[in-house]
Amino acid sequence: MKTHVSNLGLVALIAAAGCNSSAAPIAPDSSAVDTQAPDKEAMPKPGSPPQMKLEETTSLDPKKTSSRGTAPRKTERGFMMHDLDTAPEAALPFLQFGQDNFGFVSNLASVMAESPALANSYYLLQLNLQRIGSLSPPEDNIVQMSIAMENECQYCVAGHTLAGKVFFKSPAAQLEAIRAEADLPEEKFNVLRDFALQVYKQQGRVSDAQLKKFFDAGYTRKQALDVVANVAAKVMSNYANQLARTPLDKQIQGMAKGLPFAEDRKTLPNE
User: Fold this and answer.
1) Residue 42's closest CA among 100, 2, 98?
2) What is the reported pLDDT for 64?
3) Do the beta carbons of residue 214 and residue 224 sit within 8 Å?
4) Inter-residue contact 139 to 132 (CB < 8 Å)
5) Domains of the chain, with CATH numbers?
6) Which of 206, 201, 231, 205 has its CA nearest to residue 139?
């Protein structure tokens, strides 16, 4: 089974890896990365994540969808940045997952928590991709990181750079190629990235020839639909970050260096 991951994880993974912003490389050393795609069943589980049903993470009860206090931090556009003490109750599973498994709540999760509908939609989608998705962890990362590059989302590309090394087990050359928008070392993965970008740019209206090329590379219709799910996950996080102007966490600041679309946003600590 794939390890549960969400973009709170994409940032929080740094804590799990024992990294800090001053020492973090822009891309991992290939010698430190397992280049073989991990088997779903072989992926380790994080430390006792909450096992939740949908009805336990969403509610129409106003008491569970309203803030429980005044968030002490805001983005430069005035969007609340919640913590475990202020977030709406319905959004707590998303924040608690990061705190329990990686040691802190990411700024992305803090911003999304203002909307429990968005927070839970994103969180559950990412969990579903890891629990029951048909693409391997490196393939999920290829799709999501490539969409983040297309959307010029500095926050998410930085997060996926580190997550690729620590969590998705992506080879260093693969991460560098995505960041540089260059050819990937594996032709099959070039097809996957091209297909994901076509799905995104063409609003799903890919041609018969494009779909055939995807199938000819060894992918299936099920995996084509899982590409759509991965694209949807990145639309949620990329757009939320750009709308709110989410500041970088200090843990991924180093991962944002060298990108062609630098954004002048101050770095805020995770408290």
Assistant:
1) 2
2) 77
3) yes
4) no
5) 7-23+69-256 (1.20.1290.10)
6) 231
Element counts in the chain: helices (H) and strands (E): 12, 2
126 alpha carbon, distance to own chain's centre: 8
Farthest CA pair distance, the chain: 54
Structure tokens at 125: 């989608």
CA-nearest of 181, 135, 134 to 157 is 181
| CB distance 137 to 2 below 8 Å | yes
User: What pLDDT, in 10s, does the model give residues 148-173?
Assistant: 999 999 999 998 997 788 778 899 99
Closest CA to 223 of 151, 156, 157, 132: 132
Which residues sit opposite 74 in a β-bridge? Answer: 80
Tell me the whole-structure pTM to 2 decimals: 0.77
Q: Which amino acid is at 235?
A: V
Distance CA 172, CA 15 (A): 19
What is the predicted pLDDT for the residue at 114? 95
Q: What angle do CA 152, 158, 161 make, to 5 degrees?
A: 115
- The mean pLDDT of the chain is 79
Query: Residue 262, class by beta-carbon neighbours within 10 Å (0-12 exposed, 13-18 middle, 19+ buried)?
Result: exposed
Amino acid in position 28:
P
